[in-house]
Design brief:
The structure is a single chain. This protein is of the alpha/beta class. The protein has a single domain, classed as Deoxyhypusine synthase (Deoxyhypusine Synthase, 3-Layer(aba) Sandwich). 48% of the residues lie in helices and 13% in strands. It is built from 15 helices and eleven strands. The longest helix has 26 residues.
Length: 344
């Protein structure tokens, strides 16, 4: 039995095995329909080595843009620069770890001096002469990292370097909430200013969805990355009033519950009430469980079943997409003003 047969077996079963089978089928259809696909990554998936899966999806054209926490970008860089990340254990004395200068992400151990501080030096060097006195988006920020990683010992281990090669925009949904931002403090104390243009960023993200014939999302976990891709619908309809309708497809891999009212657990169907998705009745699949198990299976199914797709190279199109959305939204505002005058 190969992986595709295993997933098809899941499809014929029940519970979340069946949901994983449905998610795999939907991911295949998203690729086959040439949808513009956004991968959102919350939590900490790269410290366990899953950056390689993201890299593979980019290389095969199965992911066109990414929204991630800063932690996933910071920690995936360790592998390219050959900085140690070790398997540890979740039952441990954390006071002892602290005394030994070891940080823990559940059962993953990372040395402070040997890895984190070396990574900090790498990032500070990357931005030593970048982003000076200019407003930037986190896609531009990540591109600086991707370009710098090309100088590392093993650039082939980095999905950020691969995103740079394939012109895949990588947005950091909460830049200040990660070591990526912490590493800018010393540069700031030496007079450097970093001006994040977050409004242009969310306009760009809405423009990607608006300029795509079909659009979808594969969401690992929930949190801010999930909301960032899904808020493109309200940005277009509620704010700009261009009558778009939201995403065509969404797959979410989560262990969060919906009944607590938090966004991470909110059902994808609930998003229809906000205009985040086209329909609450189709093309939405949530798989409840540990994404460290379901994500590799989903990737393996798509890789084994679907041929490589031509990359969309969205990063090179962001400026044009932004201007098109700007123009159409302004025309729509003018039309509404004219209609309002006539009605009076």
């Amino acid at each position: 039995m190969d992986v595709s047969e295993l997933i098809e077996l899941y499809s014929s079963a029940g519970y979340n095995a069946r949901k994983l089978g449905e998610a795999a089928d939907l991911f295949y259809r998203m690729i086959d329909d040439d949808a513009t696909i956004c991968l959102t990554i919350s939590g900490a998936m790269t410290p366990i080595g899953y950056g390689g899966l993201v890299k593979e999806l980019i290389e095969r054209g199965f992911v066109d843009w990414i929204i991630s926490t800063g932690a996933n970008i910071y920690h995936e860089d360790h592998f390219a620069w050959d900085l140690p990340v070790k398997q540890g254990h979740h039952q441990v004395d954390d006071d002892l770890l602290h005394n030994k200068d070891i940080v823990r992400i559940y059962d993953v151990f990372i040395k402070g001096e040997g890895t984190l501080q070396e990574q900090d030096k790498v990032l500070q060097e990357a931005f030593k002469h970048e982003m000076e006195g200019m407003g930037f988006t986190t896609a531009e920020f990540s591109r600086v990292i991707g370009k710098h990683v090309k100088k590392s010992k093993f650039p082939e281990r980095s999905f950020i370097a691969t995103a740079y090669d394939y012109d895949v925009p990588v947005y950091v949904s909460t830049l200040k909430d990660s070591s990526l931002a912490l590493d800018l403090i010393p540069l700031r104390f030496h007079g450097r200013e970093f001006l994040l243009d977050f409004v242009r960023e969310i306009a760009e993200q809405a423009a990607i969805v608006y300029n795509s014939e079909k659009s979808g999302a594969l969401e690992i976990g929930g949190g801010v990355p999930k909301n960032t891709v899904q808020q493109t619908g309200p940005a277009l309809d509620q704010i700009l009033r261009v009558s778009h309708g939201g995403l065509n497809y969404i797959i979410q891999l989560t262990d969060a519950r919906p009944d607590t009212g938090g966004l991470s657990g909110a059902t994808l169907q609930e998003g229809k009430s906000w205009g985040k998705v086209k329909s609450s009745h189709e093309n939405l699949v949530t798989v409840y469980g540990d994404a460290s198990i379901s994500f590799p299976l989903l990737c393996a199914y798509a890789i084994s079943k679907h041929e490589t797709r031509k990359p969309k190279r969205l990063y090179t199109k962001l400026g044009d997409y932004y201007e098109k959305l700007k123009d159409i939204s302004q025309l729509d505002i003018q039309q509404r003003n004219v209609e309002g005058t006539i009605s009076k």
